[in-house]
Amino acid sequence: MSAVETHNLTKIYQNRHIALNGVTVCTEPGAIVGLLGPNGAGKTTLIRLILGLHRPSAGWVEVFGRQMTPNAAVLRCRVGYLPTAPRLPPQMTPITYLDYVGKLFGLPGEVRKPRLAAMIRAVDLLGASAQKLSGLSTGMLTRLGIAASLMNEPELLVWDEPTYGLDPEARRFTIDLMKELARNRTLILSSHLLHDVDEVCDHAVVLNQGQLIFQGTMGELKGRMRRNHFELQLEGKTKAIETARANVSKLASVRSASAAGPRIAIELTESKDVASPLAEVLMTVAEAGVGLVSIHSKGQQTEEAFLELVESDEARGFTRATDAKAA
């Protein structure tokens, strides 16, 4: 049974705006899914439909094998939700707010009180537990929102831009917390910060203009883009580096090689096996008397893969509609 499954999910607002168009996704239990897409791609709409906050114009959403609707309160009790930059009651304190959230879930006092205390400790807000929320920083409010999303001990977490507006220290804390929490839960993480998704998630769903353009593992997302492109960081004399570049460009397995200072960008010819041609490149560099500082595959850059995927989808134009109809 899938944790979340959608079929042909479509949402049109007031017959004016198509937010989602025929989105079919499947999230297995225990997966950590990054929900990606440009602004206006439909990420927040998809989240709202998964939570049952909106009704779909067509298609359906199932959570844990049951259809999610605005009336499925029992089903929503199994989900923890964190909105972007949560707005919390300013006069409450972390203790009174989490106590209120626990009451909304119907938790009795003997369960609610120990749990909220544990949550406050877990998100490192013990020192601010009696302060009014109006005096807490953005990072503190986000951590409190995370604690609130865990009060019902959910099996599924849906977090929308959890690192939005955080300073580097708070962002690092939140990422580490996400890694810890995702060990025994299903997590759907919507974020425009691709580095965060790359660090936390093992699967990705990519939307563009309301349509699904990719669904798979993070490795598949990165590996399908420019997998034959590499960048070598070298050390040595400028003349020797240029000699290395010229010799590398003559190899039959190399399509192009360009130098920018101590870096050489290499594109190999299309091949399933890159180990052998790459070894030949490294040997050629060594023979030129140049030292190798580092090498990385440009195809392993999540941001580059994402941007190329979106650009490719937009370039298809009208064929997207015909492809969807054929499928």
Question: Can you describe what's shown?
Answer:
There is one protein chain. This protein has 327 residues and is of the alpha/beta class. The chain has twelve helices and 15 strands. Strands 7-8-9-4-10-11 form a six-stranded mixed β-sheet, with helices on both faces. Strands 1, 2, 3, 5 and 6 form a five-stranded antiparallel β-sheet that branches. Strand 8, helix 6 and strand 9 form a beta-alpha-beta unit. Helix 3 crosses helix 4 and helix 9 runs antiparallel to helix 10. The longest helix has 15 residues. It is elongated. The chain starts with a strand and ends with a helix. The mean pLDDT is 87.
Distance between the termini: 24 Å
Task: Provide the β-strand percentage band.
Answer: 25-35%
Structural class: alpha/beta
* Strand/helix succession: EEEEHEEHEHHHEHEHEEHEHEEHEHH
SS element count, helices: 12
pLDDT < 50 runs, ≥5 residues: none
Mean pLDDT: 87
Strand count, sense and barrel status of the largest sheet are: 6 strands, mixed
User: What's the gyration radius in Å?
Assistant: 24 Å
The tally of strands reads: 15
What helical percentage do the residues reach? Answer: 25-40%
Strand order of the largest sheet: 7-8-9-4-10-11
The rough form would be described as: elongated
